[in-house]
Design a protein that fits this description.
This protein is mainly α. Helix content is 77%, strand content 3%. The chain is built from 10 helices and 2 strands; from the N terminus they run αααααββααααα.
Length: 309
Amino acid sequence: MCISILSMALYIAEIVTIVRHKKFYNSFYALFVMRAIPDWLGVLVSFYGNRLPSIFGAVLYPIYSQFPNWMLAFGLFLTVHTFLANNLVTAFILLNRLTAIIMPIKHEKLWRKFRPLITIFVYGVPTLLCWPVLKMDGILQLDDPNSTTDPSFAIYEAGDAPYIHYSLYISLLPQTETLSIILNENCGFMHWQHFWVTCSWQAYFCNLDGPKTKALLFVYYPLIMDTGTVMLASWLLLWASDTIRQQLIKDFSIIQKTNIQNNRVGPLEGPGNNTHRPQFRTTIATNFIIRTKLRIAVSVFFGNESLTA
């Protein structure tokens, strides 16, 4: 959770840096900002539906039990929606880098022309696919119903969970097809690979209602999703782009210096302050004059004694 919060803070700092400086106004950073929105929403939804109920179950269970059904279903809707939107934007980012190599002259003009359509496609297609999830019958499922000391819970669906199965299917189907294509080294093995991958996911779906599968899903889901979204996106950009890294450090140093200057409201107290230096110098001069007069008086006194002797 700590690395997720740190990655989200870095993500925000990068987005602010991109928006503030016009030199980052290009197609790649526009797609990066477009992906940051579902990434951020996905992490916030994981806190709403998974992490906070697991940590503060005793406090939140009475509050969540008063929520209407649409608030419980909306968490799953945003979870699947942000996941699909992230996949679509990532695909467009890869295509953007490919066109930057193939057609460097027409690259920016082409992407600037199709940017509104890409935005509608990225956010519209997941909405059309995920709206049936809003009909689900949400419930609060305790992690251990027989325990009196573990009040943690999670938002789930009543009955056979048809909409959760549907959401998992539409989320994993693009991954299944992509994995089949990547594994394909020979067209003759294409059907076998597709059959193997599809059967693997079907076996996973059949075992979804098992208690161990649910426990693993609830425990590792936030870690895997955060790693694939906010953590990779924020830290890889910081590592790969010298321009964004230098500008981010420069902006942060300017903000830090400004805060230090604003904190200096009045002069500091003590002898080292400038307001005390004139008085300190006057004291030194006075002591020097007194010591000089004493030396002259002593020398005159001993000189008169020697003359008398």
